[in-house]
Specification:
Chains A, B: Pfam families: DUF6073. The structure is a homodimer. Helices cover about 0% and strands about 50% of the residues of chain A. By secondary structure, chain A is mainly β.
Chain lengths: ~210, ~210
């Protein structure tokens, strides 16, 4: 299941802590190894709602920009790795990784409804993600069958490290038991807010 | 590509104009043949934004409700047919149908953030849709690779005939040339508002 364009990873350098980021400048292709944190709320029908804080990292490959100048440049992205871990008294330890059956894909471009303000126009970042929420205490891995749309507004650097973002979830996004995809949803995400961290040391990433 | 649960259509009756709908009551399974209208805005990079009014019909199959009482009942839905036609001076005649490569699936349930008000709790309706926008003037069929999430709030009858709804699009939803899925998006939907119509006469639906 491909939620957007595939971005080439062959020959694209991994970027870690110390990488220089220049505002208002489309960078060369790279694989960004970034920290991430997220606060997700899960609703389990008949049981309750649980808000969990997650921390971890992502690896995002970026395409060559479609233009050298900031304003017209578009950059395509794939989320190629994710690992976030959270703890919940009720749900136990939850580990979030990418669903290998989905291509999680996105884009950074100037929005059609531009941001107010002087100077160059800030860009909008969006990514459509297929994830696995591993919940061993429940004995289940939960997956989304619609992508989770993650957005970051007011993007002035690529990558938008340090920026807050939001999962565009309207009321509820169904999660299914990975071993019973045709059954009723087991839980729903009702809210998701995240923060992109900065570049990480290579030693933090497992590969 | 399945955006949710498959709903059985075998043996499920088609419902047309004259069908009685009872508020706050989960109905027996049926295939609802309903009118629909929509106002969509398309942004074509470098060209402009175009707002188009569409009219047509949908056929939606509903599952048996999971409970006989309104409050706990969940109903699963598949959009099994759609045809909407719109005219635009710039884009020409546009015909919207379902993408046969996607299962367009949805659900009606009580939201976790209930609606204010007295009496029984209104439900929330959501559907994840894969569509084809046929634009012969451009010589292209455009498809979405992330589902279009259509939502109707404050649902007091099933089906929610006559209710306004919204496409939950955050800034932009990419549309790709069906014959060049791996290319850059050709256009974006930047806004989508719709109205569910009532039951149609059988003669209006082509099959």
């Amino acid at each position: 299941m491909r939620y957007g364009r595939k971005v080439e990873t062959d020959g694209v350098p991994n970027l870690y802590a110390g990488t220089k980021v220049t505002p208002w400048t489309p960078p060369e292709p790279g694989i960004d190894n970034l920290g991430i944190s997220s606060v997700d709320t899960f609703a389990v029908p008949g049981v309750g709602e649980f808000t969990v804080q997650f921390d971890g990292y992502v690896r995002v490959v970026r395409s060559a920009p479609t233009a050298g100048e900031w304003a017209p440049a578009e950059v395509y992205t794939n989320l190629i790795e994710m690992k976030m871990v959270g703890e919940s008294p009720e749900l136990g330890t939850i580990t979030v990784t990418l669903n290998p059956e989905c291509l999680s894909a996105g884009q950074i471009r100037t929005p059609f409804d531009p941001y107010a303000g002087e100077g160059p126009a800030a860009k909008a970042c969006r990514m459509a993600v297929g994830a696995i929420f591993d919940m061993p205490k429940l004995g289940m891995q939960l997956v989304n069958r619609e992508p989770i749309i993650l957005t970051i507004d007011d993007v002035r650097t690529i990558p938008p490290a340090g920026a807050p973002g939001k999962g565009q979830i309207y009321r509820m996004l169904p999660l299914h038991d990975r071993n019973n995809l045709e059954g009723e949803p087991v839980a729903y995400i009702t809210s998701l807010r995240f923060n992109m961290g900065g570049y990480l040391e290579k030693s933090v990433i497992k590969n």
